[in-house]
Amino acid sequence: MPSDLNRDEWVAALPRAFVAGFVKTDKELQERAQTSGTTVTFVIIEGWVISVASVGDSRCILEPAEGGVYYLSADHRLEINEEERLRITASGGEVGRLNTGGGAEIGPLRCWPGGLCLSRSIGDMDVGEFIVPVPYVKQMKLSSAGGRLIISSDGVWDALSAETALDCCRGMAPDAAAAQIVKDAVGHKGLRDDTTCIVIDILPHDKLPVPLPQPKKQGKGVLFKSMFRKKPCDSSSNVEKEYIEPDMVEELFEEGSASLSERLDSKYPLCNMFKLFMCAVCQVEIKPGEGISIHSGSSNPGKLRPWDGPFLCSSCQEKRDAMEGKRPSGRRCDSDSD
Ligand SMILES: [Zn+2]
Questions:
Q1: By the number of CB atoms within 10 A of the CB, which of 46, 146, 281, 296 ranks highest?
Q2: Where is the PPM-type phosphatase domain positioned along the sequence (predicted)?
């Protein structure tokens, strides 16, 4: 956590930081000419707030203690995501199935060149650059009753529904639960893909596995909650307020656009996170006048002026243009890995 931000500000800054970090990582892999990429499901738990950034088809699901299932990641499979198919064809890619030669088409929808069946990933260099690393981001706040997170790769979700995965390990400790989910997933017949699983329990204070000696206080979880909610200081009725304040699962943030100018827009709080003379993606210093506004070249600039920040360095501007199909891209190298 940067020293100049408090916890609320940090949590609010995470969605933009995720976008910058994912794109920066993808660029760095590109420079190292790594050809084989990966899906990413990146989770930060801060108190009761869960922040998830994802590209690809690994998934993170949440079951709050109150019940129900929340999907905290997007599924960037071309087969099921029409919006992403349209984005890719608009950026110069082709979407179609594998052609066996005899005219028959088989398998899931793929993106050409490259043949990837995902529309977003990190580090896939042998595909068109419209396969972008810009993550879907979702932030949820749990109630102080807590909940369970399951983070798994596609091999699990090809075999199990979210409900089945949650049910098959109910009541188990997280490590045993993860093992059970993998066991159930590989027990199914058919093709197996990567099958990895992480289970995380976010527990209320009175259910921690090793009870910590704590002075008895009224209003469990209030300490954590107060980190994320600014309450008016009214000492006269504090106890009552804590009692009646809704303590429930809340969706704080959701955004999945692939457009950098939308995702790094200065309308978000904390403009100071992206300083005037610093690239909004890779954070290198930009000399005055050399930064390129993230809104430059926008087909629908609206009220935005091209000299409005945040700014990109020339290398990140090139990356943005490639991602949006504005410069010839094609295959970035001649590998035939998938
Ligand atoms: Zn940059």
A1: 281
A2: 1-202
Residue 287 lies in a domain: no
State in Å: Cα 130 to ligand 1 middle: 18
Cα(313) to ligand 1 centroid in Å equals 4
Compute the distance from residue 230 Cα to the ligand 1 centre, in Å.
Answer: 34
Pairing of β 70-71 and β 59-64: antiparallel
What is the whole-number distance in angstroms between the Cα of residue 288 and the centre of ligand 1?
A: 14
CATH number for the domain that contains residue 234:
3.60.40.10
Sequence letter at residue 193: D
* Strands of the sheet with 147-152, listed across from one edge: 70-71, 59-64, 147-152, 197-202
Q: Which SS3 state, helix, strand or coil, does residue 44 take?
A: strand
Whole domain around residue 19: which residue ranges? Answer: 7-97+106-210+217-261
Round the CA-based radius of gyration of the chain to a whole number and report it. 22
CA-to-CA distance for 21 and 191, rounded, in angstroms?
Answer: 33
Report the relative pairing of strands 105-112 and 40-46 from DSSP bridges.
unpaired
How many residues appear in the chain?
338
* φ, ψ at 254 (rounded to 5°): -150, 130
Give the residues across from 46 on adjacent strands.
49
Residue 243 lies in a domain: yes
What confidence tens digit (pLDDT) does each residue in 290-338 have?
888 887 776 555 555 555 678 899 999 999 999 998 875 444 444 444 4
Q: Say how many C-beta atoms besides its own lie within 10 A of residue 247's C-beta.
A: 19
Residue 229 to residue 225: CA distance in whole angstroms: 6
- CA–centroid distance, residue 24 to ligand 1 (Å): 8
Residue 113 lies in a domain: yes
The residue with tokens 């009753």 is 145
